[in-house]
Amino acid sequence: MGGTSGGTGFNAHVLTRTLLPLAALAAIATPVLGAVTVVPPPSAAPGAVQPLVPGLSYTVMNRPGPQVLHVLTMRPNALLSLGPTQLSGSLSQRATLTSGMTARLATGATAGINADYFDLGTGTPSGILSVGPRLWAGPEPSRSALTIANGGALAVGKLTLAGRYQKLDPAGTTPFPKRTFRGVNRPLPSTSSTGVVIYTPDFGRPTPSTPGYEAVVAIDGGVPLSVNAPLQGTVIAQGTGGGTAIGTGQVVIYGKNASGTSIINELTVGSRVELEAGIAGIAPDAWGAVGGGPMIVQGGVAVPSAGEGFTASQLTGRTTRTAVGQTADGRILMVVSEGPQQGKRGYTTAEQGTLMVSLGATDAIGFDSGGSSLMALGRQQVIPWSSERAIADGLIATYLGAQISIPSPQRVSPNADGLADSSSIDAQSPVAGHTLVTIARRGGGGFSSVLLDQTGAPASNQIAIDPATLAMPEGPYVVTTTLTPADGTPATTMNRNLVVDGTLGSLKVSAKTTGKGKAKTNTVKTSFTLSRQAKVTMKIVNSSGKTVAKGASNRKMSGGNRTVTWSGKALPAGSYNVVVTAQSSYGLSGLQDSIRLR
């Protein structure tokens, strides 16, 4: 739990210009030090549903407080599933959610959220991580975990590892004792006087250098350790003191004190051994299990927190929070609520349970919170943080059909001002087959072009959209991708809209201050080009996103070089954005620059 510093309003990703203090009544123009950026598209109306793929949608909800919720609603189907993922590919490293999503676009990653708490130093998740049947980390029995059954049914509850290993006698004449192990890829607590842990290649580094004994086992066929699936192998080495590298297809059985003595005495080099990571409540065909906690809804009722080993601040602090639940009709809800660093009130864990009940959840679990609370749509992080924290694992929705995504603001502005003159879109083909991506003028108009026509393995293709190269007239377009699988299953198609609109360009902002004391005034001047008639609005916005001044409001202006100026009583010192928008026959486009008033 915890947070990184969050951005507010328009100022999250732009440089600033500085207004210098003035001497007496002199007027000094501000030097150009900033960077013009494209204005983000208007937010959808609160509660508006944005379909992502069949069975999955995204919604932003405003609640009193103020509170803002980002909600993914999912109904799994034959092509759409939800599963846990170790984002970096190794328990020794963390990764951002968006980097993990980007790396999985070729396999159908569509949207995702953060999951379990984790050790900041080692990157190891606090609880279980099972990706499908493959067991990356064992459960934490004191905390709740989420299990996802084949078909998408969720179960929230505590899981316990019943691990066992046993030396085998090929002749079948000597029954060796069954031994237990307490953990998978998680070192024994320093307070433990004895015990056994299994390390697999997913641990991502040599075994910890601690007093104890080890046996290295080569698993038959190199099969990874999986939940409730017995494995057999041959002991190929013994060691003491840890620091043992774990090769592909191997596991290391580590024991401390008396447990370690049993390993050394029984698991001699050449011995055959069987081991199994038994976890009740996880079916062999489950889509996976992931730790978290605490349980916040059970049977449609918010659960008063029983602690589950969390600190009071983790449970009662008002912060950004992540939760997952399921409704009575089977819909999965993935909810991230903004917190104080996004300018919102934030929720406690108890309030989070009440919130999930209000959304219809009959069962729900909380996940890591604060700066680790994240949600990504494709490559895009939608929770407003100034930087994205690297985390251990996440839940990712995967769609095995054609996908296409166009970055915001889904507009290309070919007016040679160096801003959004071209764009790049993602076309995902998560199964082998034939992919066709085309672009055509919406509603007809004669223009069409093939952007991609390829047959092959699963892939994610970034495709450039350059109106100058493609000789595209300005106007609305539709981009279509069709994936025809090689295995003969039905083809899938997806459409996305794109607008080519060079109406507004070449924004320049200057400012000066005159007078002193109560007579001090600010003057902000904007110059820009219009390629056609448009209704122009120029406004000055403070760091909280509030408009504090307007130089024009829907002023009709013809094409050409244009200027809009605002002058008035000096504004309070601080950072501001100067925003110019143009409403034309092709919709709304906008540019902005930032200034700092001292």
What is the typical, i.e. mean, pLDDT? 91
- Anisotropy-based shape: elongated
Structural class: mainly beta
Sheet with the most strands: spatial strand order: 3-4-5-24-23-25-21-22
Instruction: Sketch the major β-sheet.
Output: 8 strands, antiparallel
Tell me the distance between the termini: 36 Å
Helix content: under 10%
Q: What is the strand tally?
A: 43
Low-confidence stretches: 1-33
**Tally of separate helices:** 5
Note the quaternary state here: single chain
Give me the Rg, rounded: 29 Å
Structure description:
The protein has 5 helices and 43 strands. It is mainly beta and 598 residues long. 6% of the residues lie in helices and 46% in strands. The longest helix has 10 residues. Strands 3-4-5-24-23-25-21-22 form an 8-stranded antiparallel sheet. An 8-stranded mixed sheet has the order 13-12-19-17-16-18-15-14. Strands 1, 2, 39, 40, 42 and 43 form a 6-stranded mixed sheet that branches. The protein has 4 domains: 126 residues, Immunoglobulin-like (Sandwich), CATH 2.60.40.2550; 226 residues, no CATH class; 119 residues; 87 residues, chitin-binding protein cbp21 (Coagulation Factor XIII, Chain A, domain 1).
